[in-house]
TrEMBL record:
It comes from the Bacteria. CDD domains: AdoMet_MTases. GO terms for biological process: methylation. It comes from Rhodanobacter denitrificans. This is Class I SAM-dependent methyltransferase. One of its GO terms (molecular function) is S-adenosylmethionine-dependent methyltransferase activity. The keyword Lipoprotein does not apply. Keywords: Methyltransferase, Transferase.
Length: 282
């Protein structure tokens, strides 16, 4: 199961991308439109990007006293949120160009001195216990030795540090694999490892972390991506009647009296991603 699609800024990443499929402009620029706008509303209902409370995800508040390490930062969506809420951010990715771009965006915030590092996270070029918040979203499924990287994440966290971790949902990965066009198979990026829910929680616990919440979100994007492959449109301009109709249907569902309850049930059934909030003992 191998796919590689290059997302544009502000657009949802491909299901195997290293950014969570949350359509937030990393530079805090133009408001998202279409599927991105609906996806952002959906994500916020799931607990992401709570600007009022400063929670990157529910239960993970970000403030001026925090040192945040974002491992596999990608386009820097999570890093930028944390910087806007006053934290000192260390953004890490193995792609030098991404790190360069995120470093520039962080510097442009004018908030604090932030750092961008190029690393494959094995090991992390950081001292023990230096982070109060550790983020690693949509990364572990790409690694040959995810347990070693989890050990590194554990090492750099301070006692009581909070961790925000995510990997793709297993069922939707099976769906994408069934509908993926042949031309996207076997492209660079390496095989995607599917991590089941029980295995994910076990990995996090084995690393020494205490799981605070294990949840899932993003049924909307699971279906959107399955339809996207058939529509044969570009990711930077995914305009197509099928995608537009699905987006409109989901928007209408969220506005129904029981819409949010149904969303939660569908998110549990076939999420685009599963999320763990964990804490380092101490």
């Amino acid at each position: 199961m191998t796919r590689q699609v290059e997302p544009s800024a502000g657009a949802p990443s491909a299901p195997d991308g290293r950014d969570p499929p949350l359509p937030v402009s990393p530079a805090g620029g133009d408001e998202p439109r279409g599927a991105s706008a609906v996806g952002l509303d959906d994500a916020r209902l799931s607990g992401w990007y709570r600007e009022d409370s400063g929670e990157l995800f529910r239960g993970v508040p970000i403030g001026a006293d925090d040192v945040v390490v974002d491992v596999g930062c990608g386009a820097g969506v999570n890093s930028m949120f944390c910087a806007r809420h006053g934290a000192r951010v260390v953004a890490i990715d193995r792609e030098a160009q991404l790190v360069h771009e995120v470093r520039a965006r962080l510097a442009a915030t004018g908030t604090r001195a932030h750092t961008g590092l190029v690393s494959d996270a094995n090991p992390l070029p950081l001292e023990d216990g230096m982070a109060t918040r550790v983020i690693c979203t949509e990364v572990l499924q790409h690694l040959d030795d995810s347990r070693q990287v989890l050990a590194e994440l554990f090492r750099i966290g301070a006692e009581g540090a909070l961790y925000l971790l995510s990997v793709p949902g297993a069922l939707q990965e099976d769906l994408q694999d069934r509908v993926l066009p042949p031309e996207y198979r076997g492209q660079p990026g390496g095989p995607l490892r599917v991590i089941g829910g029980d295995e994910f929680a076990q990995m996090v616990g084995d690393a020494g972390l205490v799981v605070v919440e294990h949840t899932s979100y993003g049924f909307f994007w699971s279906i959107w991506w399955a339809l996207f492959w058939a529509c044969k449109v570009e990711l930077y301009d995914p305009a197509h009647p099928v995608l537009d109709h699905w987006t409109a249907a989901w928007r209408a569902l969220l506005e129904m009296p029981q819409g949010q309850q149904l969303k939660q049930q569908l998110d549990q059934f076939m999420p685009i991603s599963q999320v763990i909030v964990a804490r380092k003992p101490g």
